[in-house]
Amino acid sequence: MTYFGPARQSDRSRSVSIGLLPALVIASSLSLVLAACGSSTSSIGNDASVNGKGGTPGTAGTSGGAGGGTVVTGAGGAAAPTCGNAGQPCCASNTCNGGGCCIAGNCIGSGAACNGGNNTTGTCTNGSCENAMGTACGSIGQICCGGGGGGATCTASGARCTVTPAGDGGPATNMCTACGTNGAACCQAVGGGVATCDTGLSCQGGGGGANPTPQMCAPCGGATEACCAGNTCDTGLACAAAAAGMARTCMNCGAVNGACCPGNICQAGGICTGAAAGAAGTCDPCGGTGQVCCANNACNAGFRCNPAPAGGGGASSCDACGSSGQACCPGATPCSTGLGCVGIRNGNPGTCDVCGGAGQACCGATNTCSVGFNCVNTPAADGGAGALSCMACGASGDRCCANRTCNTGLTCTGNGAAATCG
Length: 422
Hints:
Blueprint: H1 10-13, H2 23-28, E1 62-64, E2 70-72, E3 101-103, E4 106-108, E5 121-125, E6 128-130, E7 136-137, E8 159-164, E9 173-178, E10 201-204, E11 216-219, E12 238-240, E13 249-251, E14 270-273, E15 282-285, E16 303-306, E17 317-320, E18 340-342, E19 351-353, E20 373-378, E21 387-392, E22 412-413, E23 420-421
Antiparallel strand pairs: 1-2, 3-4, 5-6, 6-7, 8-9, 10-11, 12-13, 14-15, 16-17, 18-19, 20-21, 22-23
């Protein structure tokens, strides 16, 4: 299964040809418009019941809970950023928004303390921190933060730690240099993972030996170019298999209802069937209503894959998900606006329903509730698993909220399920 790659950065790897306009039009009405784009819990119980917390930040849509507060679930409006903001993972090329610092793979905001890892201290200032000696470090042109060897790191967006070996009797030095752009060295993976480049580029090349050639960022995803991260290519191309030791490249093959690419690979929305020795297969549609699941049990947005029964006797299928009463969809937005995923237990994907408010089911795999409510396990009469539901907390006579907290002026007394506010 091959997915479409991300949009190409126009200023790094592509040129745009502009046709000659008639002289009269040029003379009378030529204007240039510049647009600048900015970068853009609730209580948990402390008793023997299942602990719950407020809605998961970063997912769009809200469902109001009775008694106050909101549970953040569903998929309403534009999706929230998944990287680059404070508290989120660093984006490609270790990028953080608003002058933040990338420390141990996560972003902290400008002005926050740089004590999240990599032996950094001080305050994040436009991507720069301080080392143990109080010297500014981490930004392009500054020394690397942290210790020597593998402990040295840079904290600014698009910066990597470049070490210059000792020479002429002098010590080895390190400096933060630019990375991630077309033709530049790949950025080091801060906090684990693989080396990174800007969108539309991938980390390519590099040789072995005592002094290996560093990998460089180069365009990917286009025809005859290397496949981008995750073996993705631009629309209309597929990441075809390659001979042993060779890099996979994007090729114009594998279209739905067309012949499969080498390696029985198809473009997004197709799955290779009928391939046999000496004969190429055909890319049949997949991922939609009533269709088989695509490679890696993937389906189109708004569908989830029901894998084929164990032992054969059937095929996988994509079924609608995310609406009220339907199974929860995979990914960060399992349900439509105003709904949450409930009943996730023992491999059950859960069902989309209202949740989080007083007397409603707890939301998600972590059993979240609106602010001012706890997720409580009410044992079944027959000794079964019982039901999880949201109950009020924090007010006088209610259960204590997370960390034995209560509303202003009240104190949590008692222990376990008997702990109440008064």
